[in-house]
Amino acid sequence: MATTEVERTLNHLSRTLNLTGHVGFDSLPDQLVNKSVAQGFCFNILCVGETGIGKSTMMDTLFNTNFDSTPSSHDLQDVKLKSHTYDLKEKNVMLKMTIVDSQGFGDQLNKEDSWKAIVEYIDTQFDAYLQEELKIKRSIHNYQDRRLHACLYFIAPTGHSLKAIDLVTMKKLDSKVNVIPVIAKADTITKTELHKFKTKIMQELVTNGIKIYQFPTDDETVAETNTAMNGVIPFAIVGSNDEVKIGNKMVKARQYPWGTVQVENENHCDFVKLREMIIRTNMEDLRETTHKKHYELYRRHKLEEMGFSDSDAKSLSETYEIKRQQHVSDLQKKEEEMRQTFVIRVKEKEGELKDAEKDLHVRFDGLKKQHADEKRKLEDSKKRLEEEINAFNQRKVAAQQASTLGKKKK
Predict the structure, then answer these.
(1) Inter-axis angle of helices 296-305 and 116-134, to 10 degrees?
(2) Which of 81, 172, 211, 223 has a CB 3.0–4.6 Å from the CB of 115, allowing a cystine?
(3) Do strands 249-256 and 259-262 pair parallel, antiparallel, or not at all (unpaired)?
C-alpha cells in the first residue's frame, strides 16, 4: 500500500473526542516558545551591492549596533564573500547573527561572472547542511546553520533603470535565497524620481521573470500589513551611524546644507518599513521559506543526482547498491579506456622509436661511407706524398754525385 493510501486510511480511522476535564497539552505552544528561547535563534543576511553603496552602514543602522567592517577597495580582481558572525541579545532572546558581504561586486571591467561566487557560497552552505542531515550521528539542533535567510540587494539610485548586472544576478539568486531589493542612498533623488524609479524596477523584474521575496499574506494577523508592504517594494532606504538632535531627542540622521534626513522618519525613507518587515514581523517566515523552499529545492536536485527518486519503490540500500554498481561499471569503463589509450600510445611510441632507429642507421651508414671515402682520399694523398719524397731523394742523390765528379775532374 502506498504511503498516501496509508495516511488516508489512518485519517479515516481517527475520531474526534471531547475531553471531560483539563489534561494540559494546551500548554504545548508555551513549551515550544520556552524551548526556542532557551536554544536561541539564528538569522543570516547576505548583502549584495557595489562597493561604497552603504551596505555596512545599513546593517549597523538596522540592528542598532556597530558591526566589524572594513572598507573594501575597488581593485579586487574577483568577487569575494566575507562573513562575520555575532551573538546579539535583546531582553532574554539570543540571536546568532551572520552578515555576509559581497566584496568587489561590480568593480571588475568584465562583470559577466560576478554572480558565480555568490551562488557558489549559497550552494556551499546548503551542501554543508545536507551533509549534516545525512550523517549517521546527526546533531542538527547543535549545528550552526549558515544558510542565508535573506538577501538585501542594494540598487544604485540612478533613477533610470536596473543595470544588466543587477538583472542577471537577481535572476540567478531568486531560486536560492529570499531576494529583497532595496534602493540605497534614496535621499539622493527626489520623491517624484523615486516613485518612477520604483515602478520601473518592478516592471523590469516582472519582464525578466525575476521572483523576489513576497511577504506572506496567509496569516490573518499580518495579512493586511504585509499586503501593503508588498506594494512598497523595493524599499527606498537611508542608513546613518550619526545622531543629530531633533527637538528634544537624538535621532539617526544625515545632515546636508539644505536640511536633515531622518532615518526613522517614514516621510523621509522606507527604513522603518524594511526593519518592521524583515525583523519584527517576517523573520521567522524568511527562515521557514529558506528551509522549506530554497533548501528543499537544492536538496531534491542533489538527491536526484545521487540516484534517489520518489517514483521508484527502492530502499536506501537498493539505491546505494545500484549507484555502487554503476560507479564500479564507470570505473571499469574508464580503466579499459585508459588501458586502450595506453596501448595506443605505447604502439605510437614504438613506431616513433623504430623510425628514429632507422634514421640513426641511415645516418650511421652515411657517416661510415663518408669516413671510408675520406680515409681512401687520405691514403691516396699519403701515397702521392711518399712518391714525391722518393723522387726528391733520388734527385738529391744524383745532384750530390754530379757535384762529386766535377770536383774530381778539377
Answers:
(1) 70
(2) 172
(3) antiparallel
Q: What is the pLDDT of residues 305-316, one digit of tens each?
A: 877 766 655 556
Q: Are 178 and 287 in contact (CB under 8 A)?
A: no
Give Cβ neighbours of residue 223 (< 8 Å, ≥ 6 apart): 217
pLDDT, tens digit (0-9, with 9 covering 90-100), for 326-347:
888 888 999 999 999 999 999 9
The CA distances from residue 167 to 48, 173, 180, in Å, are: 13, 10, 13
- Give the 3-state DSSP-derived string for 358-402, with helices as H, strands as E and coil as C: HHHHHHHHHHHHHHHHHHHHHHHHHHHHHHHHHHHHHHHHHHHHH
Query: What letter does residue 218 receive in the DSSP assignment?
Result: S
Q: How many CB atoms lie within 10 A of CB 108?
A: 17
Give me the helix-helix angle, 116-134 and 164-173, nearest 10°. Answer: 10
Gap between the Cα atoms of 24 and 202, Å rounded: 50
CA atoms within 13 A on the CB side of 177: 32
Residues 266-282 pLDDT 10s: 888 899 999 999 999 99
HSE, CB side, 13 Å, CA atoms: give it for residue 346.
6
Nearest-angstrom CA–CA distance, 69 and 250: 24
C-alpha cell at 213: 521575496
Q: Phi and psi for 84 in degrees, rounded to 5?
A: -135, 135
Q: Could you tell me the CA-to-CA distances from 93 to 119, 144, 272 in Å, in that order?
A: 31, 17, 21
